[in-house]
């Protein structure tokens, strides 16, 4: 575990130089508080770990909620398709007054007197045999499963995105700490330059150079603070929370021991857990059912219908009538529309087979890339830590040479820059390492166990 508190070299000061430091107290006062951000008592505080942030995104992210609504839509479509297999009952009632034309004849108008007609009927229609409708219903049920798996895949993508956003915020937070350490270090080096000048061992140029370097580090600190605040806003947006909160991240960038995996083991885990592969299998099944439904339109279908009701000139005198019939429909020729649908469905099946191969290749690529990156970033962390240790040793030696007057503070300034770069290298290496952990977990479909 890497502690992100940066070591700061201390300096020994003689009593002879304390007096000049008392005269110039404002020159060395830090321009920034050591706190990460000013306290905000008006906003509620929300403390989040990496795991908490990813879980919160599943519940609050608008994209995840949208995919949940698509599941509901698919379920409603399946219910609608089921309705074509169930009885359809309708009722109607009517009343009318009519005159009938009997034709022209000698001595008459050929038109009857007005007559009243009243009718009330209930009708029922039932599909008795239709393989095409059955396959359409099965396809609609499969589409519900596809929508559910798509929603799960989107949830994994959202969790990975939020996880990486959390790590980027941690990187920005670590950068703020590093810049604060640089500012503190430059204050100490400025004190040393003033000491050397009053002792006659340095010039005003050395003091001015130290002041310029201090102002540069203050500028970098301001930029780092701004980047940190922006990263927190992006994280809040990714989770789907309100911006009116004070977000506090409880995790730190650190190195962890990762169990070793061979490429074959990692690919096997991905094959068993990746939701995209499961969803694609369902899409293939959906395309096959759609083709089957279109092909079975060639098969004759049987429908039964009937109605019963009352009809008469007067409501009290209405008589009961009924009608029952069977309808056998035999497809013969529809202008080639059915064959066109069959050909289109076959093409969709072939497209889904191609997509399945492409997704398998993509999953294999993501797993292999994540494994390579994880191994590389582990080595990067080790190298960056060694670089920081050597940079601090270089700074200490340069400071000692400047303190005894052997060299100017140009060497010290160069060593300062080396330390700042080394700190950035450590931060970047730790970020890349943890990001590769997230990417590997996403590639294997195991984000929830990260």
TrEMBL record:
Subcellular location: Cell outer membrane
Coiled coil: 207-234, 260-287
Any matching Pfam family: OEP
Taxonomic superkingdom: Bacteria
Signal peptide: none
Record-given protein name: TolC family protein
Gene3D superfamilies found in the cross-reference section: Outer membrane efflux proteins (OEP) (1.20.1600.10)
Keywords: Cell outer membrane, Coiled coil, Membrane, Transmembrane, Transmembrane beta strand, Transport
Family in the record: Belongs to the outer membrane factor (OMF) (TC 1.B.17) family.
Species of provenance: Candidatus Nitronereus thalassa
């Amino acid at each position: 575990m890497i502690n992100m508190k940066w070591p700061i070299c201390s300096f020994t000061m003689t009593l002879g130089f304390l007096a000049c430091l008392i005269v110039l107290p404002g020159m060395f006062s830090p321009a920034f508080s050591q706190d990460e951000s000013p306290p905000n008592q008006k906003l509620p505080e929300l403390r989040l770990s990496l795991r908490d942030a990813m879980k919160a995104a599943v519940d609050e992210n608008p994209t995840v909620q949208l995919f949940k609504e698509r599941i509901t839509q698919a379920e409603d479509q399946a219910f609608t398709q089921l309705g074509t297999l169930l009885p359809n009952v309708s009722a109607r009632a009517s009343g009318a007054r009519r005159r009938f034309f009997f034709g022209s004849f000698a001595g008459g108008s050929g038109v009857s007197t007005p007559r009243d007609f009243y009718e009330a009927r209930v009708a029922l229609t039932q599909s008795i045999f239709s393989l095409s409708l059955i396959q359409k219903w099965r396809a609609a049920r499969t589409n519900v499963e596809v929508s559910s798996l798509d929603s799960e895949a989107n949830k994994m993508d959202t969790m990975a995105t939020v996880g990486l956003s959390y790590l980027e915020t941690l990187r920005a937070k670590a950068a703020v700490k590093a810049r604060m350490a640089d500012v503190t270090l430059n204050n100490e080096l400025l004190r040393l330059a003033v000491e050397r000048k009053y002792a006659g061992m340095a010039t005003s140029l050395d003091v001015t150079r130290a002041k310029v370097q201090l102002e540069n580090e203050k500028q970098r600190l301001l930029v780092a603070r701004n980047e940190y605040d922006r990263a927190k806003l992006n994280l809040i947006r990714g989770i789907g929370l309100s911006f009116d909160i004070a977000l506090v991240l409880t995790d730190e960038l650190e190195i962890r021991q990762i169990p070793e995996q061979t490429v074959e083991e990692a690919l096997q885990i991905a094959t068993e857990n990746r939701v995209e592969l499961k969803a694609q299998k369902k899409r293939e099944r959906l395309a096959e059912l759609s083709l089957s439904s279109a092909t079975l339109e060639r098969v004759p279908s049987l429908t039964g219908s009937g109605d019963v009701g009352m009809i008469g000139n007067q409501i009290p005198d209405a008589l009961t009538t009924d009608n029952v019939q069977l309808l056998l429909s035999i497809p013969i020729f529809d202008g080639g529309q059915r064959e066109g649908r069959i050909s289109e469905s076959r093409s969709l099946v072939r497209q889904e087979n191609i997509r399945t191969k492409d997704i398998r290749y993509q999953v294999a690529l993501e797993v292999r890339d994540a494994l390579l990156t994880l191994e590389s970033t582990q080595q990067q962390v080790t190298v960056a830590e060694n670089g920081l240790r050597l940079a601090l040793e270089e700074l200490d030696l340069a400071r000692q040479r400047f303190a005894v007057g052997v060299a100017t503070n140009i060497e010290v300034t160069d060593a300062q820059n080396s330390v700042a770069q080394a700190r950035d290298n450590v931060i970047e290496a730790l970020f890349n390492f943890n990001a590769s952990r997230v990417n590997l977990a996403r590639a294997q479909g195991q984000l929830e166990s990260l």
